[in-house]
């Protein structure tokens, strides 16, 4: 039974300083390692790209802008499925991810990419609710510092930790790249 790797929004636009300070400088390297392992095993890879819409004027992720381009670690090959979306969840993109996973007979998926607490977390929550057995590779994700509603800075590391705590054993199993690759 296939276990697709879902790589979310690994796009050049997230290098833009507009997002602020980021955690996990190893994210892209770890995603690249996962993609290479999936290709070697002949397992399916799904690459998700965020295409900002007309209401997101100035977004670095706007189609036709350099920031919309995928990073090399998420490069598409002829076997990969490209899903494009304009919202946080990869399950609200085109083509229909849930329908594609069902057609593949997939019951278990692995999720990685950008950003930990937005598109990755939303996709993981929906996948869990749809009945998939999800492995969320935390060290193959990254996020950015945010200011909370109280005006206080919440660091990217705190956000990633909170996401992992909220998701683990409820919607998924939070794992490391090493664990997924069978090296620990």
Q: What's this, in brief?
A:
The protein is α/β, with parallel strands linked by helices. It has helices at residues 27-41, 97-104, 116-129, 156-167, 177-180; strands at residues 5-8, 45-50, 81-85, 93-94, 108-114, 133-142, 146-147, 153-154, 173-175. It has a single domain, classed as Rossmann fold (3-Layer(aba) Sandwich).
What order do the helices and strands come in, and which of them pair?
Elements: E1 5-8, H1 27-41, E2 45-50, E3 81-85, E4 93-94, H2 97-104, E5 108-114, H3 116-129, E6 133-142, E7 146-147, E8 153-154, H4 156-167, E9 173-175, H5 177-180
Helix pairs in contact: 3-4
Structure description:
With 184 residues, the chain is an alpha/beta fold. The chain has a single domain, classed as Isochorismatase-like (Rossmann fold). Helices cover 29% and strands 22% of the residues. The chain is built from five helices and nine strands. Strand 3 (81-85) and strand 4 (93-94) form a beta hairpin. Helix 3 packs parallel to helix 4 (156-167). The mean pLDDT is 95.
Query: What is the strand tally?
Result: 9
Beta strand %: 15-25%
For the record, the CATH architecture stands as 3-Layer(aba) Sandwich
Distance between the termini: 23 Å
* Structural class category: alpha/beta
Largest sheet: 7 strands, mixed
Number of structurally distinct domains: 1
